Every structure is written in structure tokens, then in C-alpha cells.
Automatic annotation (TrEMBL):
Gene3D superfamilies associated with the record: 3.40.630.30
Residue stretches in coiled coil: none
Listed GO MF terms: acyltransferase activity
Protein source organism: Lysinibacillus agricola
Sorted UniProt keywords: Acyltransferase, Transferase
Source organism superkingdom: Bacteria
Gene: pseH
PANTHER family: GNAT-FAMILY ACETYLTRANSFERASE, SPERMIDINE N(1)-ACETYLTRANSFERASE
Location of the N-acetyltransferase domain: 2-160
Descriptive protein name: UDP-4-amino-4, 6-dideoxy-N-acetyl-beta-L-altrosamine N-acetyltransferase
EC number: 2.3.1.202
Length: 178
């Protein structure tokens, strides 16, 4: 049902549509112009960067969102991650997507930590992180300036040792091509 495939050039127009939609951009640190030329430049800049990877989330071969590992630090075995559901018709399954990435990060890549920053107000995402065993580590006060005001950002992390103990999600394994 759910699958992940590496982001390709053919996806850029759809990803730009998602990324500039209000339900996605409201919780992103930056707002971007709906500019396909800049989207191609972003893709070319990041396509061969081995510190970040982007995958299209598909349900029955229909693209519904994007998930990524970013700031991948192989020396210290950690990475941030991000994701969003672009097609709101599939928001009901949003919570089922994360375990696939965590299993890949910990068991395939051998990472020790996955971490995420969440803008205050994105309560659903914070609740999801806690559901999967993340620890709330810090609040970065006035961390992002957006919409003419400062916003707090919550920092969460999940350690491999904590994930290993949470066996009920270990069956969620799929291929992520690097």
C-alpha cells in the first residue's frame, strides 16, 4: 500500500504545488515562491548531496507527500528528518508513515539518533513524535521569524536504543533507495 521512491525531476512540479500550499508551508521555516525554475535549481543543488535524501511517499502508486533525511552526519550517526502530506485526501494515514523511515534510519543506515524541529502550534506533529517514542529535549524560544512574528520551535529526538525497545513498529520495513 505505502511505498517510497527517490525524488525525481518529474516530481518537481507536484512537490512545488505541495510545498507552497498553505497546509504545508505554515509550519515550514521558510516560504518559497511558486517558481518552477527555482525548484529545478534546488533539485540540482541537492540531488547529489549525500547528507540529504528525499523520497516521494506513494499509496497505491499515487504520490501523496514527501519525506526526507537531512543533515545526515555519518560520523556522529545522526540525522534530522522532515515530511509532509501534500494530498490532504491521504492525511488519515499520515501517522503510519514514520515507522518505515525510523526502521530504515536505525537498521539500514545504522544511525544512533533521528531528530526533528517542530514549530509551536503544529500539535499533531508533536503528538506523533511522542507516540513513536521521541523525547522532547528543548524549546528554542523565538527561533523562527515568519508572518511578522517570532515563533518557538520544539526539538525532539529519538535514539536507536529507545526505538529498539519499541518492537511493535519493527514490522514496518520498506525499501528506501539512496
Amino acid at each position: 500500500m505505502i511505498s517510497f521512491r527517490k525524488l525525481e525531476e518529474r516530481d518537481l512540479e507536484l512537490v512545488l504545488e505541495w510545498r507552497t500550499s498553505e497546509h504545508v508551508t505554515q509550519y515550514m521555516y521558510t516560504d518559497i515562491e511558486k517558481d518552477l525554475v527555482n525548484q529545478y535549481k534546488w533539485f540540482e543543488k541537492n540531488f547529489n548531496d549525500d547528507t540529504q535524501y528525499y523520497w516521494i511517499i506513494e499509496v497505491k502508486n499515487t504520490p501523496i507527500g514527501l519525506i526526507s533525511l537531512n543533515q545526515l552526519d555519518r560520523t556522529n550517526k545522526k540525522s534530522s528528518f522532515a515530511y509532509y502530506i501534500g494530498d490532504l485526501n491521504y492525511s488519515i494515514i499520515a501517522g503510519r508513515i514514520h515507522p518505515y523511515l525510523y526502521n530504515f534510519a536505525f537498521y539500514e543506515l545504522g544511525l544512533n539518533k533521528v531528530y526533528a524541529e517542530v514549530m509551536r502550534g503544529n500539535d499533531g506533529m508533536m503528538k506523533m513524535h511522542k507516540h513513536y517514542g521521541f523525547t522532547h529535549v528543548a524549546t528554542f524560544k523565538d527561533h523562527i521569524y515568519k508572518y511578522d512574528q517570532f515563533h518557538d520551535v520544539e526539538y525532539f529526538e529519538l535514539l536507536a536504543s529507545d526505538w529498539t525497545e519499541c518492537t511493535k513498529f519493527h514490522k514496518f520495513k520498506l525499501t528506501f533507495v539512496l
